[in-house]
Each structure stands twice: as C-alpha cells, then as structure tokens.
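Tokens as discussed.
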C-alpha cells in the first residue's frame, strides 16, 4: 500500500466491488435486483470503477508520459491477478463442481479454451459445471468488463497526442457518440447481437463514457480552480433522481457525466476512516475477480441460502487478500520508471509553462498507480 494515498478512492473502489456483488446476488438466481436511477446496482458499481479509472489512469499518464512505461504499468495491474484467477478457476474450482470425472474434465478442450480469458477473450463456460444453477456452466460472468477497460486504457495516450482543446472535445464527443451507439444497440437492435472479440459490443461501448468523463475532469483541473464542490455533487445526485423518474432509461446520458463528477468529488476527499481502506491491501480488484465464482459456489453448495450474498463476501475477502499480497502487489513492484517521454511533450509543456495536465499531480493523485477495475 502506498502511504501517500490520503483520499477516499480506495474505499470507493471497494464500495463499487460490493455493489457489483450485491447486484449479482439477485441476477445470478434469475431475479431482478434493486437499482439506482433506473440502473441496476451491479451496473452502477461498474460505472464507478470506470469513472475512477478514467480519472486516475489519465493522471498516471501525465505523470509519466511514456508509452512503453504506461503500457507496462497497465499490463502489470490488469493481467497477473486475472491470470491467477482464471487458472485457479479452471484447474481447481472447475474439477470440484463439474459432473464430469477428473479424467474427462481435464481432457475436454473447453477446459483449456477457458484460459483465453487471460488474453481478455471472453469464455464464460467450463465443461458441465454448476449445471443445476440458473447460469448453468457459467463460472465468471464479470470478466467481460476487462476488455472495455483495457480498450479505454489505450485511448489515453492516443488522446494525449492532440492539443488541449481538441483533446477535450474529442473526449466529450467520443463519450457521447460511443455511449449513444451502445444505447441504440441495447434499445433498437433486434438481431443476435454484434460480437467484438467474443464480447457483446453494446456492453463494451456503454462503459466508455464513464471512463472518458473521468479523464475529462482530470484535464479540467487547474491550480487555484475550485472544480469539485459538494453542493454541485448534490445537485448532480438530485438531477439523476429527477431524470430517472421522468425520462426512465434516458437518464443514462446524464449519468455519463454526473456520476463521474460525484465519484471524483467524493474520492478526492480525505475522511478519517475511509482514507485507510487499503491498509490491509487494495482488495477491490480481487473482490471483483473472485466474487462471481464464489457466488456460484455458494448457490451450488447451499441452494436457497437466504444469506448467500454476505456469505459470498466473507468467502471472497480472503481470496482478494491473497490475490493482492501474493500476485498483484509483487507484480506492481516490477513497474518500470519512465525513460522515454512522448515525443516533444515535455519540451512543449516546459516552453508553454503549462500547469494543467502536464503538471505533476498533488497528493490527491497519489492513488493513480494502483487503479483497480475493474476496476
């Protein structure tokens, strides 16, 4: 854990992971769970992850505007924990919950195709596992979100090539266009669904606006400018309730920008208990990775358990702790230092006396190197 992280972002990531677990606790049994502003809790939790990632990953880029270093950091944050989860799921959990014999399970080609999840190629099923459950054969339905997360990462250095004003408008227009396309695919497309890298394209697209909006707010920050205000955040919250009541699904475009603002406003605060949320490690990514398999396992072992959601959290927390300390944290120690700067960026910033996105961030940005997913 980085001792300089005196803000609420760690607590927010854990809260987002718990929202996903809570929402999936209803969906995984075929039910319809509660939501907020007309959106299911699990989706809200995922949107929070993407908003935080957009803000902090953008800050990370402008601290070290070097493409190889940036990509290495993102890979080290995303893939080691994912790889450990996928391997454990396929080779340890799968044989325990399948109806096949160990010999037939380990000679089935689909067992090893599941490992493609490490390369962000979505494979939901293992051979004949959890056959009696609502999501029969599904092991980890949460992994689909890691592909849009990785794609969002790649947009950060691309937008950084643009001058400040086109960069700002590119992010804003890109958020609206990609999000609108995703909404149209949800509402208007009646075919089988457009598949991109074995993931439904509409699910990929609808997450981009939250990441882009988080990046936009980072770009708008300037020394001496009071960008984040609690009264404005409260107004955003009220507007979301109003639009959800009056316009149903169309409150989502409003949420693309209001939710990231509220999240960042709260995340930049420093509250006595919440700022120490990561004192035992950054558990949010591990919670997100292991919760779905644990929820399936709980329902498999104790069908109809009324305490399935809290039991899942209790089982997932130790796995998240081990994931952080045995896999994620050691991998992050391998992060390289920036040696090559993005062409001309440092010289141009120095010549212009720029104090915006190129300026080294203050204490509120200290958490940027350890962004979780989804975050």
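Sequence:
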């Amino acid at each position: 854990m980085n001792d300089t992280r005196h803000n609420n972002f760690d607590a927010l990531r854990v809260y987002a992971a718990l929202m996903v677990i809570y929402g999936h606790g209803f969906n995984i049994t075929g039910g319809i769970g509660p939501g907020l502003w007309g959106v299911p809790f699990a989706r809200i939790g995922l949107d929070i992850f993407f908003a935080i990632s957009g803000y902090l990953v953008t800050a990370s880029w402008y601290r070290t505007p070097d493409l190889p270093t940036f990509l290495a950091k993102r890979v080290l944050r995303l893939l080691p924990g994912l790889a450990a989860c996928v391997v454990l799921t396929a080779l340890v959990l799968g044989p325990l919950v399948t109806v096949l014999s160990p010999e037939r399970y380990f000679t089935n080609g689909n067992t090893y195709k599941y490992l493609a999840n490490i390369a962000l190629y979505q494979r939901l099923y293992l051979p004949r596992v959890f056959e009696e459950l609502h999501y029969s054969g599904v092991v980890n339905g949460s992994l689909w979100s890691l592909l849009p997360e990785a794609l969002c990462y790649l947009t950060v250095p691309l937008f950084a090539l643009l001058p400040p004003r086109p960069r700002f408008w590119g992010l804003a227009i890109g958020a609206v266009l990609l999000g609108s396309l995703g909404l149209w695919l949800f509402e208007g497309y009646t075919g089988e669904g457009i598949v991109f890298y074995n993931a439904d394209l509409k699910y990929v697209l609808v997450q981009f606006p939250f990441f882009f909006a988080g990046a936009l707010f980072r770009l708008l920050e300037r020394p001496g400018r009071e960008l984040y205000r609690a009264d404005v955040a409260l107004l955003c919250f009220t507007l979301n309730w109003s639009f959800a009541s009056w316009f149903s699904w169309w409150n989502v475009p409003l949420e693309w920008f209001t939710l990231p603002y509220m999240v960042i406003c709260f995340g930049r605060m420093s509250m006595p208990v919440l700022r120490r949320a990561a004192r035992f490690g950054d558990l949010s990514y591990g919670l997100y990775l292991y919760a779905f398999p644990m929820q399936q396992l709980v329902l498999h072992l104790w069908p109809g358990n009324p305490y399935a959601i809290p039991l899942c959290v209790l089982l997932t927390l130790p796995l998240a702790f081990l994931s952080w300390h045995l896999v994620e944290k050691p991998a992050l120690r391998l992060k390289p230092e920036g040696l090559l700067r993005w062409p001309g960026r440092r010289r141009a910033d120095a010549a212009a006396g720029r104090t915006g996105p190129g300026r080294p961030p203050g204490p509120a940005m200290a958490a940027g190197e350890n962004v979780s997913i989804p975050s």
